[in-house]
Amino acid sequence: MTEIKSNSENIVEVKDLVKIYKEGNVKAVDKISFTVKKGEILALLGPNGAGKTTILSVLATLLNATKGATFVNGYDVARDPDKVRKSIGFVFQEPSVDGDMKGWENLELHAVLYGMPKKERQVKIQEVLKLVDLEDKANSYVKNYSGGMKRRLEIARGLIHEPKVLFLDEPTLGLDPQTRRKIWEKIKELNEGDLNMTILITTHYMDEADELADRICIMDHGKIIAMDTSENLKKQLSGDVIDIQFENVDDQFKFPMIIKQLKEISGIKNVSFGTAGKEQDIIPKIQLPPGMPATVTPEMIQARMREILSDPKKLLMAWKKMPMAANMFLSAPLSAKKKIADLFDDKLLEEVPENIKQELIKIKKGEYSEEEVDIEPSLSISCENGGKQLPLIIQKINENNLVIKSVNMHQPTLEDVFLHYVGSAIREESSNHAKDIKKMIQMRQLRK
């Protein structure tokens, strides 16, 4: 067997990587290859289940590759796992600091596990606490830290052994805008300062990838479908983007013909179709009110809403305190309501406000048929001179007897690029298998 060697110019190399989970026979990563240069920040974007966390887990020796070769800091991940672990730091998506220990104690434990001498440990603990602005909180119990402070402590822990590469898996998920900005500043400081650290980051925040990454890798279904700088990716969609949402449509087969007709219009470069259908999202598109700080983005608010929707106790509290949350549920499509109904057992259901409780009971009893699922298709059209093209586009749609619900025209954003390649908004994990994979990774983390 021919030995595959690393290129010294790159600090991370992935060659024809394949990862198949035997549980469920799922191909999470499908023969992908890429490299990361020293001092580069690479952002991995993609829907849940695209393979982002699996890639980081393979590179971090937490999972074994099915096929292919991977190298970190010149070491073969499969043959030299111990050397790879000494070369990397990892900030996991799930919180992993011990709340019953003080800040410095968490760092001390990590340093001991890496075999650092006592004198060196004491110096490094002070250094990394200073780096993440937690010197004054070193003797406080972590359970009393804010979410942002815990995240900064996790970054400090990942840095204490002076890694060459830092893996950040959703580092700012669920944090408030100000805290997210502070985390961004620390990431930039690590990358641009004396450490010149190479960073791989997975994120669902488009603005985060735009702000931090030298290059962006868009993934879906285990494959890389686009990889370049943010600016170059946006240039591929030069001109305008027109988003058109339709009222409920009975005949979905009209859309292939409409898309064909629209593509025949001079100046239209691409037309992509999206429909939530049974996967329709309960989270609405967010329009920020005037006067909101520039640091607040719709994506941040949506991420916070998703966090609440994934936790029945948080959702229950929101329903009781905020009428808007209750109204959002009652007006949501049936498919979204079904996902929420699955979160509530009989005991917790008793605490739900009466109007929502009755709706959840009907759903659990199956009193709604699948035919009642709302389907609101949409088209995203990339074109030159959108203002000129819009009347022609609407004319074609009217000729097909479809009712337009809304039209929005804007300059291409990174999210437009994402939707152009992936074809749908970032999807939620919809299977227990994804959760099983996360549990398996966490168990392997504990075994290391």
Q: Give the helix level as a range of percent.
A: 40-55%
Question: Mean pLDDT, as a whole number?
Answer: 82
- In total, the number of strands is 14
Largest sheet: 6 strands, mixed
Evaluate the radius of gyration. Answer: 24 Å
Q: Percent of residues in beta strands?
A: 15-25%
**Neighbour order of strands in the largest sheet:** 6-7-8-3-9-10
Poorly predicted runs are 276-281, 370-374, 425-448
**DSSP helical segment count:** 18
Separation of the first and last Cα atoms: 29 Å
Shape: globular
Structural class of the helix and strand makeup? alpha/beta
Topology overview:
Elements: E1 10-21, E2 26-37, E3 41-45, H1 52-59, E4 67-72, E5 75-76, H2 81-87, E6 88-91, H3 103-113, H4 118-131, H5 147-159, E7 165-169, H6 177-192, E8 198-202, H7 206-212, E9 215-220, E10 223-228, H8 230-235, E11 240-246, H9 254-263, E12 268-275, H10 298-309, H11 312-321, H12 323-330, H13 334-341, H14 346-349, H15 354-364, E13 377-383, H16 386-399, E14 404-410, H17 414-422, H18 432-447
Parallel strand pairs: 3-8, 3-9, 6-7, 7-8
Antiparallel strand pairs: 1-2, 1-4, 4-5, 9-10, 11-13, 11-14, 12-13
Helix pairs in contact: 3-4, 4-5, 11-12, 13-15
Structure characterization notes:
With 448 residues, this protein is of the alpha/beta class. Helix content is 41%, strand content 21%. The chain contains 18 helices and 14 strands. It has helices at 52-59, 81-87, 103-113, 118-131, 147-159, 177-192, 206-212, 230-235, 254-263, 298-309, 312-321, 323-330, 334-341, 346-349, 354-364, 386-399, 414-422, 432-447; strands spanning 10-21, 26-37, 41-45, 67-72, 75-76, 88-91, 165-169, 198-202, 215-220, 223-228, 240-246, 268-275, 377-383, 404-410. The strands form 3 sheets. It has a 6-stranded mixed sheet with strand order 6-7-8-3-9-10, sandwiched between helices. The protein has a 4-stranded antiparallel sheet with strand order 2-1-4-5, covered by helices on one side. A hairpin with a 4-residue loop joins strand 1 and strand 2. The longest helix is centred in the middle third of the chain and has 16 residues, at 177-192. Mean pLDDT is 82; it is low at 276-281, 370-374 and 425-448.
